[in-house]
Amino acid sequence: MSLGLSVLVRHMRRESIPSGQEAVRAQLLADLGNLAYQCEQLDEAVGFYELALRLLPSQKRALRDLGWTHWKREDWAACQSTWKRFASTFPELGEPHSLLARLALQRMDYTNAVIEARLAVGKGTPLASSRLLLVNALLGAGEFREAGLESDSLAADYPANVRAQRMRGAVLTKRGDHVGARD
């Protein structure tokens, strides 16, 4: 364990934070999880994130980053479970659905990738990255016409975004429009 990480752990064990400060404790534990993750100590990272969530089940960063830690460990079931919990804890957010869409794409589960990407975009996450996820999911699901419409809209909304323009070209190529893909 790194020196900084061991100092923070000792600090947490001394219980120098007054009781009733669960949010502060949970944030510190999530920070420890992040440090452990960065040090490639994934089992320790999981432990810190889980402790943070025991103290404060709605600790947003711990929910998100615990899922990424499971992703890095290639524990897809735990990753999915964590991000579903993230989505149910924060039903107003699109971010957990973007994460679930990425996971579904990773697992080549295109039907669920489309569902989750649509939820992400529909919950106010119309960023280019979420919409790119949706186009990828639609392509994987074989929904080329809808992928084309979404990629045309995405390219028009983000004319300076190279990824959006490349995605439009890829969709046009898949649809057999090689002339349009060149333009």
Overall pLDDT, averaged? 87
Radius of gyration using CA atoms only: 20 Å
- Euclidean distance between termini CA atoms: 53 Å
Counted by DSSP, the helix tally is 11
**Class per helix and strand makeup:** mainly alpha
| Apparent shape | elongated
Fraction in helix:
over 70%
User: How many distinct beta strands?
Assistant: 0
Q: Poorly predicted ranges (pLDDT <50, ≥5 residues)?
A: none
What can be said about this structure in brief?
The chain is mainly alpha-helical and 183 residues long. The protein has helices spanning 3-13, 22-38, 42-55, 60-72, 76-89, 95-106, 110-122, 128-140, 144-157, 162-174, 178-182. 76% of the residues lie in helices and 0% in strands.
Structural features:
single chain; 183 residues; mainly alpha; elongated
